[in-house]
Amino acid sequence: MTDAPAPAVTATAAPASTARLVAIDVARFLAIVGMMGNHLALGYVEPLTVAVSGFPSTLFAVLGGVSAVLSTRKYVENGQRLAASLSLAARGVVVALIGVALGLTPTFVAVVLVYYGVGMIVTAVLLHLPSPVLLAIAAALAVGGPHLNLLVHDSAQLQTLGELSYADPFQFLRSVVFTGTYPVITWLAYMLAGVLAARVLLRAERLRAAVRLAVVGAGMLAVAVAADLISRPAVLDLIVAKGMDRTEAEYLATGDGFGAPIDSGWVALVNAAPHTGSTGDIVRTVGAALLLIGVLVAIGELWRRRVAATSLNAEAERARRMPLLLRPIAAAGSAPLTLYTLHVLATAAITILITQDLGFDVVDGTGQAPWWLMGPGAWGIHVAAALAFGVVLAIVRRRGPLEALASLVARAAARLG
Length: 417
Prior knowledge:
Elements: H1 15-40, H2 46-52, H3 55-77, H4 81-103, H5 113-126, H6 131-156, H7 169-179, H8 184-203, H9 206-241, H10 246-254, H11 267-270, H12 279-308, H13 314-321, H14 326-333, H15 336-357, H16 376-396, H17 401-414
Helix pairs in contact: 1-2, 1-3, 1-12, 1-14, 1-15, 1-16, 3-4, 3-5, 3-8, 3-12, 4-5, 4-17, 5-8, 6-8, 8-9, 9-10, 9-12, 12-13, 14-16
């Protein structure tokens, strides 16, 4: 997901740009749908659990970097670098404030928007650095960030599981940057990876660039998974030696974390448990995100070429030939901030209903929630609602209301530059 949808494509836009943006919108939709599954269906179906654990939220972050480039491209091309950075930072402020508001609702979801918004603000500062420098920063965060994360956790002696702290400004900033479920020290690496991916897609021949992204992503994914599997027996032995039984150790080494690696030293490098921010986790999930983005952009480019070869008015013909199902998907994907916010508000309503009226505890899982509130069936309902939202947006041809708000604030901030 991204809070900043790509600029709207008009009838005169470059055909290649349109195909590329549709692919990014589809990727955004998949990220949101995956997070819905993580929130509503995690643990109900094992293959589903594997698919939605860690991958959707990190795809969401990588796409945030892609959108940072797309939403500021006009300013950069006109030489207005300060305006570009101010507009992106303003979007980040809007997103973070929405995240704070959502965090005050009684939802069981670990809301990502505060971290996401602060990550955007930092990305705005780094946006114009050369690609090799951004790559070096991202690599340093991926390798050194997990150890710094653990150092801050240990020094603070926290007894919480990734929650944001509103006790005072210092604790709030510490939880956003280091100790939260989606700490900026980790998410910035994802966003910078997205910035680099967007630059590749914008500057290189489209199909070749997409294939390159997919190949690099597949390689990163394979290396991280292999390192995790090869090292797992040693990781388990280390955890068991510290007093944990084997079953608990296996869950710790493979299950969802809360933003921090499961152990320091070499374990923080090779273990790839989701939501731990370890080097292995970052490399694995960045690789998966680049692979998916590359594949979707490649499909979009092949589609564009096919239509261009058979029509003089390729832009209009491509729009006419867009599969009917793809239209609401792309439209919903162009409004991820609104879609995500609606989903979190729905989970807040679910939380109130199942805890007060049905006696179900969303923390320890006691009680029984009906299929339409929790589980794969509930996930299906949320996906159907997202598609219905996309149908409405496709019909009225407008962006989501929160995207419109973020764009309005971003344009006002850009005028200051």
